[in-house]
């Protein structure tokens, strides 16, 4: 006698065999594939490619698919994913200016963002009746039907996906019914991965890459820290007090943005990480692998010097007409030191700050104060000067740094003229 399940369908018992067959069918389904990522890292290009291959394997004659996802990034307003049959998925980032462009305002995406659930356009009809420019491009490429659908996320944001076919007569009711059934599963998977991406982006933006990686890896307990060796860079904007006194807050913010960008870009380019932006002060580190050969450590030191030199050049390149009226140029003082720092969480029970602390940080901050006294853009400590870099350093003698128990020998680049010396 066949085993039966306790449940029933339309008044009859359901056999274990039937349940197994249904389970097996579901496990092979596209819905199951979308719901189960198998613990694998998400690769958007691979995911999109495989998804579209599976959709077409079900007999849906796709010619083109496009998806637009709003983003939480200081420079990127949205990302567009576009696939055309026979080609690879293309990813394009749109900045905030694009959101006000004529192309966006005249697009189906704007319509979906404004609350429309979906749209459909017959591309075999008279092109004179097309209400979106993209429809002309699709028709010229051979498309016959276009469907746009909303992708609502749980945070209230609305995103967009569209489908196009070149099948004569367009999509059938069965095609559209299947796509409509798939979108919620697709939407759920994309929302999950988009949330992960957004979280990492925001963490990198506000904490820095090194701190973000540690926090996301679970280093979140108060007092939890790690001692690491690092080159410490500290810089401070010159004339900040005067800048604040003589200019409107918006102008000050604009000037600081130029300053931060001038410094942050080369620091990242040469392997450093901005840990803190404190008013007009910037603290960065260049981590040193304790197991790395000395040559690699020396290369990191050379990179730190190169980052400072480029930052100084970047500041000089900012035109006066880009700055508030009372400021003709932006200048900063830089200090480089090397030592052990503690990288971790400090703060109250419910408000933590992931930062670097320790005597090495204090020494870098105190050394930077000498750039004002010595009228130089860059100084290094004797600890940093002990690293073998390709640049030549010039000793400026021993100086007392507040809070440092011993006089410290201070250096600068030999190519930097001494204060009062004639400049080439």
Describe this structure as you would to a colleague.
- α7 (173-207) crosses α8 (209-216) and α10 (249-269) runs antiparallel to α11.
- The strands form 3 sheets. Strands 9, 10, 11, 12, 13, 14, 15 and 16 form an 8-stranded mixed beta sheet that branches.
- With 424 residues, this protein is an alpha+beta fold.
- The model is unreliable at 1-9, 19-26 and 420-424 (pLDDT under 50).
- The chain contains 13 helices and 16 strands.
- It has helices at residues 16-27, 30-35, 44-57, 102-105, 108-113, 133-141, 173-207, 209-216, 240-246, 249-269, 294-317, 359-374, 382-385; strands spanning 4-9, 12-15, 62-70, 78-84, 90-94, 118-122, 145-152, 158-165, 225-237, 273-278, 281-288, 332-347, 352-357, 378-381, 393-399, 408-413.
- β12 and β13 (352-357) form a beta hairpin.
- The chain has 2 domains: 20-206, GAF domain (Beta-Lactamase); 217-413, Nucleotide cyclase, GGDEF domain (Alpha-Beta Plaits, 2-Layer Sandwich), CATH 3.30.70.1230.
Q: Work out the helicity level.
A: 25-40%
The H-level CATH homologous superfamily of the largest domain, spelled out, is Nucleotide cyclase, GGDEF domain
CATH topology descriptor of the largest domain: Alpha-Beta Plaits
Structural class: alpha+beta
Overall pLDDT, averaged?
84
Task: Give, in order, the helices and strands.
Answer: EEHHHEEEHHEHEEHHEHHEEHEEHEHEE
Overall 3D shape? elongated
Radius of gyration: 30 Å
What percentage of the residues does DSSP assign to strands (E)?
25-35%
CATH arch. level architecture of the largest domain: 2-Layer Sandwich
Uncertain stretches: 1-9, 19-26, 420-424
Distance between the amino and carboxyl termini: 101 Å
Count of DSSP H/I helices: 13
User: What's the CATH class label of the largest domain?
Assistant: Alpha Beta
Domain module count: 2
Overall strand count: 16
Give the biggest beta sheet: 8 strands, mixed
């Amino acid at each position: 006698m066949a085993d039966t399940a306790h449940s029933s369908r339309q008044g009859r018992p359901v056999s274990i065999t039937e349940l197994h067959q249904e389970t097996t069918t579901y496990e092979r389904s596209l819905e199951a594939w979308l719901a189960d990522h198998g613990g694998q890292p998400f690769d958007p290009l691979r995911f999109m490619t495989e998804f579209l291959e599976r959709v077409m394997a079900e007999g849906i004659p796709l010619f083109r698919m496009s998806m637009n996802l709003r983003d939480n990034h200081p420079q990127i307003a949205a990302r567009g994913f576009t696939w055309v049959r026979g080609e690879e998925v293309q990813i394009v980032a749109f900045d905030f200016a694009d959101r006000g462009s004529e192309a966006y305002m005249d697009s189906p995406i704007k319509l979906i963002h404004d609350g429309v659930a979906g749209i459909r356009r017959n591309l075999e009809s008279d092109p004179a009746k097309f209400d979106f420019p993209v429809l002309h491009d699709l028709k010229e490429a051979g498309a016959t039907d276009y469907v746009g659908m909303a992708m609502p996320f749980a945070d209230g944001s609305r995103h967009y996906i569209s489908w196009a076919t070149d099948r004569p007569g367009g999509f059938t009711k069965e095609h559209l019914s299947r796509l409509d059934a798939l979108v919620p599963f697709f939407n759920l998977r994309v929302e999950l991965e988009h949330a992960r991406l957004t979280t990492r982006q925001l963490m990198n933006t506000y904490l820095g890459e090194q701190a973000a990686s540690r926090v996301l890896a679970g280093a979140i307990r108060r007092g939890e820290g790690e001692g690491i060796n690092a080159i410490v860079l500290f810089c401070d904007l010159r004339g900040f007090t005067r800048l604040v006194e003589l200019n409107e807050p918006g102008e000050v913010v604009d000037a600081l943005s130029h300053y931060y960008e001038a410094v942050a870009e080369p620091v990242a380019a040469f392997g450093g990480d901005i840990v803190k932006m404190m008013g007009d002060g910037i603290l960065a580190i260049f981590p040193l692998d304790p197991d790395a050969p000395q040559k690699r450590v020396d290369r990191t030191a050379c990179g730190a010097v190169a980052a400072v030199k480029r930052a100084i050049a970047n500041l000089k390149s900012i035109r006066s007409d880009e700055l508030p009226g009372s400021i003709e140029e932006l200048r900063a003082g830089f200090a480089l030191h090397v030592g052990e720092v503690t990288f971790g969480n400090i703060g109250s029970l419910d408000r933590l700050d992931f930062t670097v602390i320790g005597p090495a940080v204090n020494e870098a901050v105190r050394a930077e104060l000498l750039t004002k006294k010595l009228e130089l853009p860059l100084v290094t400590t004797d600890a940093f000067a002990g690293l073998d870099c390709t640049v030549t350093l010039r000793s400026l003698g021993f100086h007392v740094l507040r809070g440092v128990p011993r006089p410290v020998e201070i250096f600068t680049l030999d190519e930097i003229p001494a204060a009062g010396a004639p400049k080439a």
